C-alpha cells in the first residue's frame, strides 16, 4: 500500500465475513498486506472471486468460502470451512450486512416500523445481527483454545442516531454495539478483545443510490463536515488497528469513523 512490506498482523489468521464487497473486501486486502492469513466468507461466490482476483493482482494471497451466515446452518458450515483452512482463528471481522440498497432487493426492508413487514424485520435482523451472534458463538471457543483473539464488528453511526425510516437497520446496529460490549465483559480476562467500528457515510455499493446527496454542499455539510463520504479503505484501516496488537488495551469500544458527522 505504501511501498513497503508491513507485518502488523504477521501470521495471524483472520476470518472476514462480507468479504465480497465494500468494507469486507477492503479489509481482506489491508489485512493481507499486513501479513495476515485471510479467509473471506460471502454469500455471492462471484463477488468473492472478484475479491480474490483483486488481491492476487497485488501479489497477495487469500482463501474464500461461500456461505450465508444469516442462518445458523449456513454460518456453521461456512465457519467450519474457513477454520479448516489454517486450523485456527486469531481475528474475526464481522462485516456482513445490508443497508439502504437492500430495499431494491427486498421491498419494505428499510421502511419505518409501521411500513415494515414482519418478515422483513426478521430478515434484516438475521443478516445484520443474528450473523454476528452465530459467528461469535462459533469463533470464541476456538479463540479460547489458542489463548485469545480479536473480534471486530461493523456497526454504524445509526446505532446512536434515529431515522424516520430504516428502523430495522438502526435497531440491528444498536444491538451490534451492546452485544460487542457484552462480549468484552464475558471474555476479556481470557484474552479475547471485542470492539466495533462505526462508519458514517461510506462510498460503497450499500449507499450508492444516495451518494448524489454529496453533490449539494449544504446537504454534504450535514452528512460530514469534511464534505465527502468516507472510503472502504478508511474504514478497513480502523478495523486493522483493532485487529492488531497496537489495540491491545482497546476492548468493548466503538471506533467511530464518520468524518465528524456525530461530532456536532
Automatic annotation (TrEMBL):
InterPro entries assigned: NAD(P)-bd_dom_sf (IPR036291), Sc_DH/Rdtase_CS (IPR020904), SDR_fam (IPR002347)
Source species, domain of life: Bacteria
Pfam family, one: adh_short_C2
One annotated GO molecular function: oxidoreductase activity, acting on the CH-OH group of donors, NAD or NADP as acceptor
Similarity comment text for this entry: Belongs to the short-chain dehydrogenases/reductases (SDR) family.
Identification of the protein by name: SDR family oxidoreductase
Amino acid at each position: 500500500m505504501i511501498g513497503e512490506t508491513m507485518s502488523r498482523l504477521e501470521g495471524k489468521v483472520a476470518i472476514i465475513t462480507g468479504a465480497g464487497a465494500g468494507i469486507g473486501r477492503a479489509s481482506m486486502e489491508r489485512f493481507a498486506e499486513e501479513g495476515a492469513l485471510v479467509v473471506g466468507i460471502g454469500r455471492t461466490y462471484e463477488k468473492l472471486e472478484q475479491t480474490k482476483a483483486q488481491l492476487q493482482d497485488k501479489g497477495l494471497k487469500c482463501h474464500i468460502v461461500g456461505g450465508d451466515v444469516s442462518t445458523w446452518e449456513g454460518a456453521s458450515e461456512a465457519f467450519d470451512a474457513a477454520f479448516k483452512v489454517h486450523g485456527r482463528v486469531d481475528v474475526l471481522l464481522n462485516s456482513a450486512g445490508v443497508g439502504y440498497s437492500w430495499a431494491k432487493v427486498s421491498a419494505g426492508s428499510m421502511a419505518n416500523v409501521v411500513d415494515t413487514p414482519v418478515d422483513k424485520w426478521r430478515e434484516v435482523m438475521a443478516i445484520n445481527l443474528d450473523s454476528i451472534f452465530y459467528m461469535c458463538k462459533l469463533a470464541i471457543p476456538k479463540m479460547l483454545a489458542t489463548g485469545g483473539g480479536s473480534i471486530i464488528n461493523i456497526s454504524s453511526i445509526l446505532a446512536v442516531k434515529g431515522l424516520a425510516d430504516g428502523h430495522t437497520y438502526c435497531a440491528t446496529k444498536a444491538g451490534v454495539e451492546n452485544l460487542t460490549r457484552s462480549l468484552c465483559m464475558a471474555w476479556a480476562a481470557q484474552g479475547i478483545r471485542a470492539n466495533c467500528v462505526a462508519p458514517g457515510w461510506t462510498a460503497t455499493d450499500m449507499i450508492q443510490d444516495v451518494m448524489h446527496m454529496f453533490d449539494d454542499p449544504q446537504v454534504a455539510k450535514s452528512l460530514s463536515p469534511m464534505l465527502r463520504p468516507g472510503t472502504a479503505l478508511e474504514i478497513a484501516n480502523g478495523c486493522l488497528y483493532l485487529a492488531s496488537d497496537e489495540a491491545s488495551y482497546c476492548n468493548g469500544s466503538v471506533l467511530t469513523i464518520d468524518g465528524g458527522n456525530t461530532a456536532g
